[in-house]
Amino acid sequence: MKRVLFSALLVGIIGVQAVPATEAGDDEHVRITRAALDGKEVQLNDDYFIKIRLISKDEFTLKQKESTRLGHKPYEKIEDISKVQKILGNNFKVFTEFEKSVGGDITFELTTYEMTFKDGTKKRFGQKDEIGFIAYYPEVEVMLFEGGHTSDYSVDLNDSTKVSERVGNPSRYSVSPDKKFRLNGYHTGQGYYVNFLEKWNPLKKKYEFIGNLDEDFDYTWPWFWSNNHKAISWDYFFENVYYEIEIVRK
Questions:
Q1: What angle is formed at CA 184 by the lines to CA 179 and CA 186, rounded to 5 degrees?
Q2: Please, which residues have CB within 8 angstroms of residue 163's CB and are 6 or more apart in sequence?
Q3: Which residues neighbour 122 within 8 Å (Cβ) at sequence distance 6 or greater?
Q4: Rounded to whole angstroms, how far apart are CA atoms 243 and 234?
Q5: Tell me, what's the pLDDT at 29?
Q6: Alpha carbon distance 197, 132 (integer Å)
Q7: 114 half-sphere exposure, CB direction, 13 A CA radius
Q8: Angular region, 31: left φ>0, alpha ψ -120 to 50, beta rest
Q9: Phi and psi dihedrals of 62, rounded to 5?
């Protein structure tokens, strides 16, 4: 809905006739989106911003093929919860709790998880909170759960203070060839994703949040790095829209 409203607003501002078609078969919304985004700059924080360039499908396809040698291998993903319990031991406990309905005639069986972080902090959550186990990624020590409306809910075992919106979804981690930057993201539960950029801190030995990319990328996935500062992707909502972003330091 927000895409339709955004496009309608742009029609009134720039006029449909002024929007050039760059791909055969582009519909009106695609052309409007292209005109609004091509050349746009998005401020991430005081030090970095990104430049957006709209590219053709042919350029995207070529750069995607070239980028395969630059990509990192997918992180190990363990979906067997009993195996995860064996690996983490007392740091990950699973309980079955029972709760009666309002009338008391029905008893619900609910799964609850207890996480113990490396700083000793314990957190409990589970089906009562609309949270269910998905997978554990041992290489990055992140546990991924599914929240309400299929949203991503994730925890970093190394940092009990890090909220899910900063942990992201490990299946969406995309690391630059020199490992300096990482594109990350999570599903909001509303049918779209929030994408953000992180930078490696060699002193703390972890990636740290730089800034959100912008809502223009809410339907963008996956990312492919063409070099250490440029990445390409496509919009699965419009399909014909292909992006290249460049990370620029002020």
A1: 160
A2: none
A3: 114, 115, 116
A4: 6
A5: 66
A6: 27
A7: 11
A8: alpha
A9: -65, -45
Please give the structure tokens belonging to residue 196: 């953000």
Nearest Cα to Cα of residue 145 among 128, 169, 124, 121: 169
Q: How many C-beta atoms surround the C-beta of residue 239 within 10 A?
A: 14
What pLDDT, on a 0 to 100 scale, did the predictor assign at position 16? 31
Which helix (H) or strand (E) segment holds residue 96: the answer is strand 92-100
Structural contact between residues 231 and 225, judged by C-beta atoms closer than 8 angstroms: yes
Q: Which residue has the tokens 């020199």?
A: 178
Q: How far apart are the first and last CA of the chain?
A: 35
3 state SS of 102: coil
Phi/psi of residue 234, nearest 5 degrees: -140, 160
Tell me the average confidence (pLDDT) per consecutive run of 10 residues in the chain, 250 residues long: 41 34 55 78 96 94 87 91 97 90 80 96 94 97 95 96 94 94 93 93 96 88 93 85 94
pLDDT at 30: 64
Residue where the block lists tokens 């007392």: 90
Length of the chain in residues, anyone?
250
Residue 197: phi and psi, rounded to 5, are -110, 140
CA angle 33, 177, 231 (to 5 degrees): 5
| CA neighbor of 189 nearest in space, from 155, 217, 158, 148 | 148
**Dist CA 90 CA 79 (whole Å):** 18
Cα separation, 50 vs 247, in Å, equals 5
